[in-house]
Amino acid sequence: MSLLSTSHASTPGIGVEVRAAGIYVMAGTLALLFQTTVLHGLTGGRIIPDLVLILCVYLGLHEHNIGGATGAFLLGYLFDSFSGSLVGLHAFAMTIVYLIVYLVSRRLWMDNAVSGVAMVFLGSLLKGVAIVAALAAYLSIDRMSLGVAQTLLAEALLAAALTPLVFGGLRWAKRLAGGD
Amino acid sequence: MLEFVRRNRVLLSSGFFLLCSLGLLSANARQPGRIDPLGHVFLELMAPFQRFTAGIGGMAQGLFDRYVLLVGTQAENERLKARIRELERRGTHQSEMELMNRRLKRLLALGRELPTKAVAASVTARDASVWFQSLTLNKGEVDGIQVGMPVIAPEGVVGLISGTSMHASRVLLLTDPNSGIDVLVQRTRVRGILSGQLERGTVLKYVKRSDDVEIGDRIVASGLDGVFPKGLPVGRVTSVSKKDRGLFLYAEVAPAADASRLEEVLVAFPSGEELRKPALLPSAAEFGPPGPSEIGLYGPPAPPARGEGRSAGR
Q1: Which of A142, A141, A52, A137 minimizes the C-alpha distance to A97?
Q2: pTM to 2 decimal places
Q3: Do B22 and A92 make contact, defined as CB atoms within 8 angstroms?
Q4: Alpha-carbon distance A146 to nearest alpha carbon in chain B (angstroms)
Q5: Fewer Cβ within 10 Å of end Cβ, chain B: N or C?
Q6: Would you call A133 exposed, middle or buried from its count of C-beta atoms within 10 A (0-12, 13-18, 19+)?
Q7: Which run of H or of E encompasses B185?
Q8: What digits encode the pLDDT tens for the residues A47-79?
Q9: Looking at the complex, does the CB of residue B42 fall below 8 Å from at least one CB of chain A?
Q10: How far apart are the first and last CA of chain B?
Q11: Which ipTM score applies to this complex?
Q12: In chain A, which residues have their Cβ closer than 8 Å to the Cβ of B23?
């Protein structure tokens, strides 16, 4: 089994790309809606499963084009709009995650469930590190407490646990739209 | 050049967006306000969806709380109910102890006031017939109780010991048709005999029509019968009837001690006779858990002095 990924030889039609974009927009909207309402209420706000990040990793694994990068940035920006953080913080972190996942998926075969879960787990940690790094650079926060690390780890585990569900839903939606 | 861009479009676009992000970050970090060109648009667009989702989520949460979590609530409810039952039982027990304590204090006070020695006893049974009035006590001959001894409650005279066994005795109540006590009308010192009747209550006999007896007069023991100490309350006159013919008036008297509610009584010893027990009344430690009407007042009984089964004759 080759660990090297093959390049995307086939070029989908415009209609399929538009439908796929529509699915991602809808998925991103739903993910953000759930994160800001239902999931927040269920967990009491202590740990919120990062569905937007899972979507971002999915883009990094499957959308190797400008649309993928744009999507990751917009997801991050959308996230920033609904969080109290610095505007651009999550946009930066999501773009980093997308880029790293994209680079990894170009080198390694990632088209299976376990690798998807692993990438989401690592992507979640990466996002945390990116956010901390950005905060350190822009807000002079030079220390990360143990509590923050634990929260990052818990979020990563939770996101990894939800990955099969989100990836399955996205695959199902894309099949329904005729793009997969 | 175009080929390079095409081949590295993802990297280039990612780099571009990273620069955009860093630019946004820098701008927001420098400015006190929030620079978010598209944020208010996103907020406006998402607001109705968020309201809808939050509403659905709230309903789901409420459903979960009301029904799924009811399993725990039910278990807690059962635990609390059991706790309430236990506390109620304890409360009843405590109330019973308090009431008993109050009664015994009054009994103790009465025992100190009596000119003779006395032994406390509990009522263990009542008369099987509705026509006659008697009580059974938990003290008998081993405790020194003999036929003819007066039985007294804090409220007043109860009756006479009419029969004894080794460990029990029977009291003929004041209200029994077979009983009779020499009494005085406290206010006027008029003397008479108080006797029970088939109907409830007692009647004052052998009082002359001309004697001064009024409703509400207190009746006390005269002490002339040699049984009840003089001045002990017996009852209160409830009605007076002076018939057209005859020598005596007819007065009904309500007994001072309501025998139907008695639980503990004192049995007084004749003057000069000593108790066979070292203590007149028990200490609190000698009481076991209170039964319905029985209280263990003394320690192990002394050897019997008389035969069992003697009964009173009038």
Answers
A1: A52
A2: 0.49
A3: yes
A4: 25
A5: N
A6: middle
A7: strand B180-185
A8: 778 899 999 999 999 888 888 999 999 999 888
A9: yes
A10: 139
A11: 0.80
A12: 88
